[in-house]
Structures are given as structure tokens and as C-alpha cells.
Design brief:
The protein is α+β, with helices and mostly antiparallel strands and 407 residues long. It has 14 helices and 19 strands. The longest helix has 14 residues. The radius of gyration is 22 Å and the shape is globular. The mean pLDDT is 96. Bound molecules: adenosine-5'-triphosphate (ATP) and magnesium ion.
Length: 407
């Protein structure tokens, strides 16, 4: 049996854990990436049986050719894994170049292109926001007429809510257009009111082996445009409650419509005030920003390993009983420059004891991160509790009482 090629095994950090999981399942894993082998984190390095460094990973043709030439030296490659959004198409091209099974470029495109995604889902009769593709200002104006206000303009292949704007009227759309001149192609969508949730899965052969719903507090677009907010993602213990059912149902149908078979998926959906679920977007990969850790804390499990086992052997043998509600809270310092003081954390630690399971706030002396560029901002805390109301109250206390000061 040949090896499994893992794209970018050392970056982002989570990739390490997926690589380790695969090796623990008895899979021979080799990697391709643009980091030098010596720069790979220890965890990935130990799990890899080979590594090819390429100069420009994103030059798909050159990377495919380099991997094809290298493959015999590692005993052949018969599987390709990518769990990072920018590499999804590259992974599909590598599969095609190496003759490996799994998602092709054609099957991957609807996961990357927000218009194609919604066309496939519309065709299955599922509820998406009204939408149009636009690649010029004139097309945006025409799309806006068709879609109506309020609307959302966002890049076709966006991430991290970058260049995404809500426009209540023509004036706001004109302003948004000025700010998105550099975006080549965008999606114009009906704005959906309501709360926003995820539907995440690990699948094997088209079967869902594990699923999760998390709740964004507040909606990512709001969190990403107001620096004072401490964005929360709350992994929900009880997925049987009535408000989640339309979203879970929608999620299952979306996966079927897209023909998804093996691996992690991450869908975002809206729950409207009327209780209807509306599709947001989907990735054929796990959620980023440490969200797999959230699921792990919900179940006291290791879904990095679970993913590896599920996609290799078609089952997950860990106990995946949901035991906790888990809130992940990102903090953003006040002021610019270096973090000088962290207020309130001692009291929180004393009060919450063992319910506070992670403290990855940047330490005093560290330079602030750019909150627009990184979802994790100046670090994060994770709390959990069997009762949802207690978990939310703890998260809100962290949001208001823990303050980082920079200068
Ligand atoms: N049609 C819509 N109606 C209401 N809000 C929307 C709509 N489209 C996008 N948004 C808001 O903008 C955010 C970003 O949009 P979307 O998830 O499509 O893009 P993204 O940049 O790929 O996201 P991510 O931050 O998950 O990488 C959403 O999480 C949601 O809060
Ligand atoms: Mg999104």
C-alpha cells in the first residue's frame, strides 16, 4: 500500500494533530509543503515518513509535477489529504495528477466558489439566500435590484469575513463598492436576519459518523467589524433541541446534494426568527480557529484522531457522547502595541476553577496581533459546563471582566 500525502502538514497548527492521528491509525503519511523540513513542528515531523519541500506550494502545476516525480521514492502515493481551505483545489489537482480516489477539482469547486455552492444547493430545493454573481460595478447594481435590500456583498472565494459588507440601501452599497474595488468577483446576497450556527461533520463513504453544532455569539460579521467585542463560539451539548433540527436537517441534505463522501465538513447556517434554517456556506474541511478543540471538549474526545480513524477505517471507536457546552472566547486588547496588563483573569480562574479548561491569552510583554487578520485575536479562553445557561454566563463574564491593556 502506498502513502497518504498530507498537504502542508505543519501549518496551520491543527494540521499537526491530524497528521499524528493518521499515523496513529497505521497510515504511512508523507507531506508536501513550503516549510523547510527542519521548520516542521515536532509532532508533524515525528508522524511523517517523508517530506517534500516545494518553493511555491500554490503553483498547482509545478507542485503536482514535483510530487509525481517524488512519489516513487516514498513507495507511491494512493491518498491525498488537505484540511486547510486555501489548499482544497490544490489537493484535488494532486489527486487527479496521481490518480488517487477522492474529491476531484470539479467536485471541490462548489465548496470554494460561493455562487456554484448555492446553485447546487438551490437545485436540490434547499433554502439559500437569494443570490447573484457579479464581476463589475454594473453587475453589482443589477444584482442588487434583483436581490433587494438589505443585502450582503462578499468575495466569491472569501474567508474570515474579509471584504464582506451589509448594505441597507443604495448609499451603503455605493460606499461598500468603494471599499471593495480590489475584489474581482463577488456574491450579492439577500441579508438573512437571525442567529448563526455551524453544522460540522466527519463523514465516511457519505455517512455522517459525527456531527456538531456551534453557536456564534454574535454573528461573525458583527464580531469582525467591532473591535470591542469578544467573539464567542459555543459548542452545544444537546443537539436534540427543537431550534437546531431544521439546521441539522438542512446540513444533511446539503452534504447529499454536494455528494460529499469522506472527511470533515464545516457548514454555517442561519436560524431566522421564524425558526427557518437558511444555508450560509460550507467548507469541505474542518472549521479553523481551534474549533476542533471545542468539539473535543464537548465530548472529551480527540476528533483529530477521530477524523483519521473515520476516513481510514470507516468508523470512530471513541465514545462521542456529548457531555458539556463549551464556549471559546477570543479577547482583543485595548490600546495598541505591547500587552502590559491583564485584568480580571485571576478572579475568573478562582471562580471558575476546573470549568476554565484553556487559557491561551497572549502573555504580558507580547505584541498585539492584528484583530482583522486573525480570528484568534489576542488569545482566547475556553470554559465548559454541562448546563448551557451556566456556560453562557461564564463566557459573558470573561467577555466583560477579562481585559487586556496594551500600550
Ligand atoms: N446572506 C447573508 N445574510 C446575513 N449575514 C451574512 C450573509 N452572508 C454572510 N453573512 C455574514 O458574513 C459572515 C461572513 O460571510 P461568509 O461566512 O459567507 O464568508 P467567509 O468570509 O468565508 O466566512 P468565514 O469567516 O467563515 O471564513 C457570515 O458569517 C455572516 O455573519
Ligand atoms: Mg463563514
Amino acid at each position: 500500500m502506498g502513502a497518504c500525502l498530507f498537504v502542508s502538514p505543519g501549518y496551520p497548527t491543527e494540521m499537526n494533530f491530524f497528521v499524528r492521528g493518521l499515523a496513529a491509525c497505521g497510515v504511512k503519511v508523507v507531506g508536501v509543503g513550503d516549510q523547510p523540513a527542519q521548520a516542521l513542528p515536532e509532532i508533524a515531523r515525528r508522524a511523517l515518513s517523508g517530506y517534500l519541500q516545494v518553493e511555491n506550494l500554490w503553483d498547482e502545476a509545478a507542485t503536482a509535477e514535483a510530487v509525481r516525480r517524488w512519489a516513487p521514492s516514498v513507495g507511491g502515493i494512493d491518498r491525498v489529504e488537505v484540511l486547510w481551505e486555501p489548499g482544497m483545489i490544490l489537493g484535488a489537482r494532486l489527486r487527479e495528477a496521481l490518480g488517487c480516489p477522492g474529491m476531484t477539482v470539479e467536485q471541490t469547486l462548489p465548496f470554494r466558489d460561493k455562487e456554484r455552492m448555492k446553485q447546487v444547493i438551490d437545485a436540490a430545493g434547499l433554502r439559500t439566500p437569494r443570490h447573484r454573481r457579479a464581476s463589475s460595478e454594473a453587475e453589482v447594481w443589477a444584482a442588487a435590484e434583483a436581490v433587494g435590500y438589505p443585502l450582503i456583498v462578499k468575495p466569491i472565494a472569501g474567508a474570515g469575513s474579509a471584504d464582506t459588507y451589509r448594505c441597507a440601501d443604495r448609499q451603503e452599497l455605493a460606499d461598500a463598492l468603494l471599499r471593495t474595488r480590489h475584489v474581482k468577483e463577488c456574491s450579492v446576497e439577500e441579508f438573512i436576519e437571525g442567529e448563526e450556527f455551524t453544522f460540522d461533520t466527519v463523514c465516511s463513504g457519505g455517512r455522517i459518523l459525527f456531527h456538531n453544532c456551534s453557536w456564534y455569539r454574535p454573528k461573525p460579521l458583527v464580531a469582525r467589524t467591532n473591535e470591542w467585542i469578544s467573539p464567542q463560539t459555543v459548542g452545544l451539548k444537546d443537539l436534540t433541541v427543537p431550534p437546531l433540527q431544521p439546521g441539522i436537517e438542512l446540513g444533511r441534505k446539503v452534504l447529499a446534494a454536494l455528494g460529499f463522501r469522506d472527511g470533515f465538513t464545516h457548514m454555517e447556517w442561519f436560524l431566522t426568527p421564524k425558526g427557518e434554517a437558511v444555508f450560509g456556506e460550507i467548507g469541505g474541511r474542518p472549521p479553523g480557529a481551534r474549533s476542533v478543540d471545542i468539539m473535543n471538549f464537548v465530548c472529551d474526545a480527540d476528533l483529530f484522531q477521530g477524523w483519521a480513524e473515520g476516513t481510514t477505517h470507516g468508523r470512530i471507536s471513541q465514545d462521542l457522547t456529548r457531555r458539556y457546552n463549551v464556549a471559546h472566547i477570543c479577547k482583543r486588547a485595548q490600546g495598541q502595541g505591547v500587552i502590559r496588563r491583564i485584568e480580571g483573569i485571576d478572579r475568573i480562574q478562582r471562580h471558575f476553577g476546573g470549568w476554565l479548561v484553556v487559557n491561551e491569552l497572549l502573555p504580558v510583554g507580547a505584541h498585539r496581533r492584528d484583530w482583522k487578520q486573525t480570528l484568534l485575536s489576542d488569545g482566547f479562553l475556553i470554559v465548559r459546563h454541562p448546563e448551557l445557561s451556566t456556560c453562557l454566563a461564564m463566557a459573558d463574564r470573561i467577555a466583560s471582566e477579562v481585559q487586556l491593556h496594551a500600550s
